[in-house]
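Forum: Protein Structure Q&A
Topic: Joint prediction for protein chains with partners

I've read a bunch of threads here and the consensus seems to be that you should model interacting components together rather than docking separate models afterwards. I'd like to see that in practice. Below is the full input, 286 residues plus whatever partners are listed. Could one of the regulars post the assembled result?
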Amino acid sequence: MRLGEEATGFVREGSSVRVLARSGTEVACDLMVAADGVGSAIASQAAGRPTSAPIGLVGLAGRHLDVAAIDRKAPPYLTAGPALAFGPRGVGLFLSRHDPATADVDPGAGPAHIEEPSWIWGLILTRAASERRLPDLVEAAARTRGWAPWARHLMSTTPPDQIGTYRFHASDPTAPTFGWPASNVTALGDAVHAMPPTGGQSAATAIEDAADLLGVVDRVTSGAVTLPVALADYHHVVDRRARPRIRESLGPATWVARTSGPAAGMALTAATNLIHGYRTLTRSTT
Ligand SMILES: Cc1cc2nc3c(=O)[nH]c(=O)nc-3n(C[C@H](O)[C@H](O)[C@H](O)COP(=O)(O)OP(=O)(O)OC[C@H]3O[C@@H](n4cnc5c(N)ncnc54)[C@H](O)[C@@H]3O)c2cc1C
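Posted by a regular:
Agreed with the consensus. Here's the joint model:
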């Protein structure tokens, strides 16, 4: 374990790989696993091209730890599970009341309550892929004009050190193959199959990859198969697992992008007014 080292590339030398680090350190190994996330330098070198591309959406994500204060304002149905809302002007908002203490975990798995409960939110905004600036709270306030006051309050009262910005990337689910031919360099997670978090599946997919890679190492070290054969199986499994998840995760991202057009904006505004009118009507007649 060499914390703080940045891998910049590798050199294949027969059955061995030499890992190159920015510090000038070089490490020889039997198997290199790129687990360096979206924009992976290692996976890009192995594939001979970037393994994902920006999809024109950017995000501002935050964690509000004053759960009781938000609970008093948020609609009760949001406590049932995560939600993704869309509005005009190409805006989406992910919301989740996150409480690890109430999560459905295996009782034998150890202490469940490792994090404080919080309200998690993620604002999704359309942005030309070439635009470099990431969003901030000022933009969040401007783009969510007309949204429920409690949702805007949630964002505006989140402490700045609990807010992060990010770009949405995705690998191409129609590419003929993921990655590259099996040898002694492989990858897991976002490094090889980036998908937007709108499907809530990317972290789990990375963990499944890691579990399968352990199987590869076991089979190779026990002498059951050679490394290239075990890795070829692994690449096949990763490919089959990730493709549909990328497609599914791109679905909601596409809806957000579509609401940025004037026609979709007008339709959404009309639908919101209709719902508001219906609520006013039913309140006044009951
Ligand atoms: C706001 C947000 C919300 C999300 N919500 C969800 C969700 O609800 N559900 C879900 O499943 N997923 C979600 N995701 C996605 C999830 O976080 C990722 O899919 C997951 O973290 C990918 O894991 P990974 O190990 O492949 O890469 P990462 O977690 O990105 O880890 C890569 C690591 O490699 C390090 N690194 C990078 N380059 C180098 C280098 N050259 N050398 C050495 N180290 C390097 C990085 O510092 C990092 O520690 C969300 C992501 C974001 C940004």
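The first strand starts at residue 7 and ends at 13.
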